[in-house]
Amino acid sequence: YRRLHTKGTRLSKFNQTEIKAMLGSYTKVLFVRDPFHRLIATFLQGMGISPSFSSFIQEVLDSGMHNGSVAWKPLVSLCQPCLIQYDYVVMFGFLRQELGHLLLRAGLPAGSLLPELTDSQVQWTYRWLSEQMFSELSAQQKQQLSRFYRWDLAAFPFPSSFLSE
User: Fold this and answer.
1) CA distance 148 to 35
2) Per the similarity annotation, which family is this (predicted)?
3) What integer pLDDT is reported at residue 129 of this predicted model?
4) Cα separation of 22 and 70, whole Å?
5) Number of domains in the chain
6) Which has more confidence, 145 or 88?
7) Are the CB atoms for 18 and 9 separated by under 8 Å?
């Protein structure tokens, strides 16, 4: 299907038969991250123009599901995990071990191809940041965020997410 699929061609441009055949011919990997951690990273990278985290969150909530940035849209709306049968779901926090396993399954030497990944080492930092930034939010914002990301929280195991509390 390489001849049909060119850079920038969306899957929605193909008919159902072509989509099914294409998806069946690929190994599909989905990388997921706690939605609250995604919001923190987006804010820290300066992708929001707000001076405070609370006002940034209000921008996110005001933008809604359809007008929001890819950086903070719910994963379920971007990746369609209910429609696409992913072969692997790799969670941030376990990248090194899960990517190593994925490379071995593909018949590649896992150790030599992986860059140095520190995602599991920064989990404690995200826990601390989450506590600090979550405390800045109003009760209404916390409730709205939990509702905004409810399908991500239902689809993926984020047991320690502040949004699922």
Assistant:
1) 10
2) Belongs to the sulfotransferase 2 family.
3) 84
4) 24
5) 1
6) 145
7) no
Residue with tokens 């929280």: 153
Domain assignment of residue 3, yes or no: no
* 44 is a domain residue: yes
In Å, how far are 20, 23, 80, 160 from 12, measured between CA atoms? 12, 12, 12, 34
In a domain, 48, yes or no: yes
Domain of residue 50 covers: 11-155
Can you spell out the DSSP letters for the chain?
-TTT--TT--GGGS-HHHHHHHHHTS--EEEE--HHHHHHHHHHTT-S--SSHHHHHHHHHHHHHHHS-TTTS-HHHHH-TTTS--SEEEETT-HHHHHHHHHHHTTS-HHHHPPP--TTTTHHHHHHHHHHHHHTS-HHHHHHHHHHTHHHHHHS--TT-GGG-
Q: Is the pLDDT of residue 9 over 90?
A: no
> 84-100 pLDDT, tens per residue?
888 888 887 766 677 77
Whether 104 is in a domain gets the answer: yes
